[in-house]
Predict the structure of ATP-dependent NAD(P)H-hydrate dehydratase.
Amino acid sequence: VVECSITGSNRRCGGQGDLLSGSMAVFLHWANMWLTQNPTLVAAYAASGLTRWCNRLAYSRLKRSMTTSDMIQQIHQAFEELFGKE
């Protein structure tokens, strides 16, 4: 069992699962290109972490009024903070 230790916020909004599944697809594609062991597990961890970090960033700015669209606005910053630049 692998558990993502990255925390988001307690706010959940409709469409958040779409962000998770879309990022999972991208990470799985990348993982399959570069990894031979556990690419699905690595992709799931990365997608979960990215979604949680986007949630945290959006919530810190907008509190309870945040929506999934606000989370999407945070993808660039969250990705760079979690995985670095290029």
